[in-house]
Amino acid sequence: MKTMNAAVTYAKENGERFVDELKALLRIPSISTDPERTADVRRAAEFVAAELRRIGMENVRLIETSTPETVLAPSSGPAQVVAAREGHPLVYADYLHAADVDGKAATTVLLYGHYDVQPPEPLDKWKTPPFEPTERDGNIYARGAVDDKGQMWMHVKALESLFAAGGGRLPVNVRVIVEGEEEVGGEGIAEFVREHPDELAADVALVSDSEMFAPDLPTLCVGLRGMIYTEIEARGARTDLHSGMYGGAAPNPFVALAQIIAGLKDDSGHITIPGFYDKVSPPSAAELKAWRELPFDEEHYRETEVGSTVLTGEAGFSVLERTWARPALDVHGIAGGFTGAGAKTVIPSRALAKVSMRLVPDQKPMEAFAQYKAYVEKICPKGIALEVRLIHSGDPIAVSTDNPYVRAATSAMHTVFAKETVFIRSGGSIPIVGDFIRELGIPSILMGFGLPDDNLHAPNEKFHLANFHRGIESIVRFLASVGEA
Amino acid sequence: MKTMNAAVTYAKENGERFVDELKALLRIPSISTDPERTADVRRAAEFVAAELRRIGMENVRLIETSTPETVLAPSSGPAQVVAAREGHPLVYADYLHAADVDGKAATTVLLYGHYDVQPPEPLDKWKTPPFEPTERDGNIYARGAVDDKGQMWMHVKALESLFAAGGGRLPVNVRVIVEGEEEVGGEGIAEFVREHPDELAADVALVSDSEMFAPDLPTLCVGLRGMIYTEIEARGARTDLHSGMYGGAAPNPFVALAQIIAGLKDDSGHITIPGFYDKVSPPSAAELKAWRELPFDEEHYRETEVGSTVLTGEAGFSVLERTWARPALDVHGIAGGFTGAGAKTVIPSRALAKVSMRLVPDQKPMEAFAQYKAYVEKICPKGIALEVRLIHSGDPIAVSTDNPYVRAATSAMHTVFAKETVFIRSGGSIPIVGDFIRELGIPSILMGFGLPDDNLHAPNEKFHLANFHRGIESIVRFLASVGEA
Fold it and tell me: How many domains does chain B divide into?
């Protein structure tokens, strides 16, 4: 308790410096999907490693990764690995000298975060540049502010505070793993977890890459949707053709993709892929009841968060059910052809759609992809050749609330926020949580401090600075409490 | 006859130089749709004007144009002109001193062509660069080789040959009008024809912007499809959203556009817009019979021209009917969202589809657009706001074969090719032909020398050099014959 309180005081006294350090990290455009930013991504990794070393963590190192790119043939057949691209490094650190507690080995907590960010486009929508962090109205605006540099930095600063309060010792064993490919599928860390589980051996993982249900409402996330991110490439004529000469005879891959995409949902927003819902496990009655009691107003959400005339999605389910506990299908972009100003009368020879599906317990990504691929090929219009590729995938997750770490987390947040924690799910995907369950056999505590209007993956991403500081205090209390210090 | 033969001899003796001059013109990247090429477009106009001046044409000048950009509001209401952009200049020249024939005023022929070209993209598909004209296998490869710089140059070189043979006089009155916006809708010339019909007063127009049905088969085109080129802009959420958090609740403009596009055609390729076919006038039984006798093999066409596994389009019609005498609908590109390498899990706030329809006699472009717009708005999924814009349009055309100019043209080509002329239609649109009918009250002779495999609007556009020379001779003979010289 003494260490805990001293660490909380330290964090409060050094809060401004912590924000300044975060700004320096946010200035690095570590966009993992952009091959031209490879050096910046590495610079961010080195920045994090240097700080972990400075505060007292041990065995700090960058772990190189590589990512096989998998292509699936249009007809059924085995997946083919066509290329291995160089991945972005993992940052690893540990401290494994915590004192035994009552004769039992100290608990080990695995802290996970990521230092890579989404692309900032469209740039003209940002009020201040995405890589020039700016404070406004109690928030810090920058790409990665909340997802996930700001939240990952809370972990580092909580560790620094505990080291300072403990005279260079931590009250609990800690391993830190920070990845640089979360926004592009995280294949590198998945492979590392799979191949080197001993190096990450722990009792529980702490993941801060999610959000609070509402401002001032401490939240633990106990469910995540999984996903499959795919590309459908459609080819028609051998070469681009003139739509005057050939319109009415040549297949148009854009029209074909439109017909395929339109065929994936019915009028009520239900996904039409045969078998797709077979494994969907509905939330319990108790869970549904708790969701109904959350401070959530669909009309307010529509107006303030989405800003569309009406909400869409599957008929017969509430917004929270639709975004937390039901699959969804979205199209992210359609490449090819002519999209410049003016008119070009071309029937393009090819077009490519980026289509993803969110999955819920107990759907299996590989099975869902196989169902999707077979159906897309079945409804493909004549004259069009398809290639359906899986870009990446992640398991849906349900976290048990019945463990001491959940109790430690709710207790820590209760002290900081003076409120009971709510248990929610998230519509997003954090594939690593599934990897930790499957490969390390450990649960994850999803203690996130983002807010629903933080503009995740969008222009003007922000992080509420009060939550940055409350997050550090909560993590300090959680770690000290798990170590019973 | 003497002048005609001397001109033909001159053209043959100077053929190589004519090709060299054409190459110089083809090196100018006069891409009318690209605002960054404005200076190059003007340079091409000046190149053509200088040559017209050199060969002896009079009153040579550039005519400046401006193009109003029209936007139609999503709800019904009047079209709004939102901006007038500067247009590309017209090139005008005339020679109006031809001798009377048998006491009657000499005939005046209006020669039309265009010096602007389509964008060359995708650049990596060109075997040699699009603006470095290259001779290969008896062809000249370059953007604009056949569409329309090469064919327009035939007109200029036929005039030069007639001037040379006639001692500085032409056997027929000639006006030349060459535009620089054919590939972007030709609003500038349309406005000029509408507002200054006296300055283009003529008896007949000669347009060489079409193709021969087969190599060595002299062809007159007597029907053209019209078109409406549109944009559908779909807006959903106020800003880009994360597909994890919002997938299942936020409207997706790409899915909406896919559903709209898929809703525009039924399974048999029939356009489903209510009333769209009401004004469609079928070809005559005689015309259909003549088409069946043309040397055309659908399987050969599929394999060599289209290169797709099967042909598509409306069931129950032959390929020639589908591409010449039936409406068609094509999508040229869909802009917005994320189309880069890798994965970005975004629900974009907006997406834009470029959709065009080819029209046939007696459809009216404005009526067809109104039907389309109303239907698109009707089938728009909930939660999506639309803006449906008309980018440009052109009337479908049917040319009468019963006039002396058609006879002069067929006679000229018979001498050059030693074959009977076939009368075909084209699936493409040449809106100016409609303007000439409507505003000037004159028919057009569509005497084109392109070939079906000339890669119009596509990479590796070419012009068969033998046709360039035969085209010049045919035009010399046509003009001399119309002037009875």
Answer: 2
Residue B318 inside a domain? The answer is no
Looking at the domain assignment, is residue B306 inside a domain? no
Distance to chain B for A428, nearest Cα, Å = 4
User: Could you tell me how many residues make up chain A?
Assistant: 485
Domain boundary among B370, B394, B418: B394
Say whether B118 and A344 touch across the interface (CB within 8 A).
yes
Q: Provide the whole-model pTM.
A: 0.80
Q: How far is the C-alpha of B81 from the C-alpha of B84, rounded, in Å?
A: 8
| Domain harbouring B331, CATH code | 3.30.70.360
* 112-131 of A, contacting B, C-beta below 8 A: 118-119, 121-122, 125
Q: Count chain A–chain B contacts defined by CB atoms under 8 A.
A: 361
Is A426 found in the same domain as A360?
no
Task: Tell me which residue range forms the domain holding A16.
Answer: 2-69+85-224+397-482
Please indicate, yes or no, whether residues B147 and B202 belong to a single structural domain of this protein.
yes
CATH code of the domain covering residue A25: 3.40.630.10
Same domain for B266 and B162: no
The answer to whether residues B93 and B191 belong to one domain is yes
Last residue of a domain, one of A394, A419, A454: A394
Alpha-carbon distance of B260 to B40, in angstroms, equals 38
Distance from the B171 Cα atom to the nearest Cα atom in chain A, whole angstroms: 35
Residue B83, chain A, CB below 8 Å: the answer is no
pLDDT in tens, B167-196: 999 999 999 999 999 988 778 999 999 999
Digit-by-digit pLDDT tens for chain A (485 residues) are: 789 999 999 999 999 999 999 999 999 999 999 999 999 999 999 999 999 999 999 999 999 998 655 443 333 334 444 445 678 999 999 999 998 877 888 999 999 999 999 999 889 999 999 999 999 999 999 999 999 999 999 999 999 999 999 999 999 999 999 999 998 877 899 999 999 999 999 999 999 998 899 889 999 999 999 999 999 999 999 999 999 999 999 999 999 999 999 999 999 999 999 999 999 999 989 889 989 999 999 999 999 889 999 999 999 999 999 999 999 999 999 999 988 887 888 999 999 999 999 999 999 999 999 999 999 999 999 999 999 999 988 889 988 788 899 999 999 999 999 999 999 999 988 878 989 999 999 999 999 999 988 998 889 999 999 999 999 999 999 999 998 75
Instruction: Indicate whether A123 belongs to any domain.
Output: yes
The shares of helix, strand and coil residues in chain A, as percent rounded to the nearest 5, are: 35, 25, 40
Question: What 3-state DSSP class applies to A133?
Answer: coil
Q: Do B310 and A383 touch (CB under 8 A)?
A: yes
Domain annotation covers residue B454? yes
A444 with A384, same domain? no
Q: Which of B457, B460, B461, B462 to mutate to test the interface with A (most CBs of A within 10 A)?
A: B457
**Same-domain check for residues A381 and A467:** no
H or E segment to which residue A69 belongs: strand A66-71
Regarding whether B258 and B165 lie in a shared domain, the answer is no
ipTM computed for the complex: 0.80
Do both B349 and B214 map to the same domain? no
